[in-house]
UniProtKB/TrEMBL annotation:
Transmembrane segments: none annotated. This is Reverse transcriptase RNase H-like domain-containing protein. Gene3D superfamilies: 3.10.20.370. InterPro entries: DNA/RNA_pol_sf, RT_RNaseH. Residues 11-110 form the Reverse transcriptase RNase H-like domain. GO terms for molecular function: endonuclease activity; hydrolase activity; RNA-directed DNA polymerase activity. Coiled coil: none annotated.
Length: 189
């Protein structure tokens, strides 16, 4: 899985396997057949899901991945692999919270079994879910300092070659690539 990321074409006569994972920052999953990736799924964790317990984050990731690959999975039996052991009993346990009921309702109608896979073996989905960790956005507002424009205008007026270029532009001889605007020579602009 970690070698060349060439996606295989789906074979609808073979079972699909969905490996999924959730981290504190994102969700990740891989759709595969015979240990070959068919498609990848990854997205940052929504702000409303960040504070959820691990079980519910994993359930959200599982449900989002299955909904994402609905055209591949609907009407077929498939396997879900997760590194969260309690999800193995997803269909057998009593659902207590309304968010759990809501996410489980999104899985109704799909024919799947859940298998536990240790986190160290679930490397692709784990990597996809963690790609949003330590994501820092630097937002800065700056205003351009245009002090140097007067120096450029003075250089144009003091250079014979630039004056000739300016005259050719103003006479229309070089209008495909050059323009003269506000006392400045502009190339392709």
């Amino acid at each position: 899985m970690a070698s060349t990321p060439v996606l295989a074409l789906p074979d609808f006569s073979q079972p699909f396997i969905v490996e999924c994972d959730a981290s504190d920052a994102g969700l990740g999953a891989v759709l595969q057949q015979q240990n070959r990736p068919i498609a990848y799924f990854s997205r940052p964790l929504a702000a409303r899901h960040v504070k959820l317990p691990a079980y519910e984050k994993e359930l959200v990731g599982l449900a989002k991945a299955i909904q994402h690959w609905r055209p591949y999975l609907w009407g077929r039996s498939f396997i879900i692999r997760t590194d969260h052991y309690s999800l193995k009993f997803l269909l057998e346990q009593r659902i207590i919270t309304s968010p759990q009921q809501r996410w489980l309702s999104k899985l109704m109608g799909f024919d799947f079994t859940v298998e536990y896979r240790a986190g160290r073996e679930n490397v692709v989905a784990d990597a996809l879910s963690r790609q949003y960790e330590n994501f820092v956005v630097l937002a800065a507002v700056s205003t351009p300092q245009l002090d140097y424009l007067e120096d450029i205008k003075a250089a144009i007026n003091s250079s014979i070659a630039l004056q000739q270029l300016r005259d050719q532009i103003l006479n229309g001889e070089l209008k495909d690539y050059w323009s003269f605007k506000d006392g400045l020579l502009i190339y392709k602009g």
